[in-house]
Amino acid sequence: MRKKTILKLPATFDSVDEILGLDAQGCIIIKFGTDSSMVLTPCCHASGKGSIDSLSGIVCRACYVDVHHKHGGGDTDIAIPVDDLEIIIETGP
Ligand SMILES: [Zn+2]
Predict the structure, then answer these.
(1) Which residue of 31, 57, 77, 78 shows the fewest CB atoms closer than 10 Å?
(2) 44 C-alpha vs ligand 1 centroid, how far in Å?
(3) Considering the entire predicted model, what is its pTM?
């Protein structure tokens, strides 16, 4: 039996069914549209958006910190497919 990678998510995360896997840096990749994917930001599990004030050109849509340009869209390789993930929803206090 293969060891699964544990992925903890906040209870507010609402795209569990769309998760495709993790990229090499551990960022969550979700399905976006019919044949597209999107890498969520590690800080807020949000998508990225373009910003001219950002060094990378992309900021987190939720908190506006600079994030890697991969969060702006495009193809990202899935390093760990969802089948190898054990998803735990954290029900905080
Ligand atoms: Zn953020």
Answers:
(1) 77
(2) 4
(3) 0.89
From the CA of 69, how far away is ligand 1's center (Å)? 14
**Token digits for 9?**
């998510």
For residue 59, how far is its CA from the centre of ligand 1 (angstroms)?
8
Collapsing DSSP states into helix, strand and coil, what is residue 36?
strand
pLDDT at 38: 94
Q: How far is the CA of 61 from the centre of ligand 1 (A)?
A: 7
C-beta neighbour count of 66 within 10 angstroms: 16
Q: Which residues contact 12 (CB under 8 A, 6 or more apart)?
A: none
CB 70 within 8 A of CB 37: no
5's CB contacts (< 8 A; 6+ apart) are 22, 80, 84, 85, 86
Q: pLDDT tens-digit profile of 60-80?
A: 999 999 999 999 987 789 999
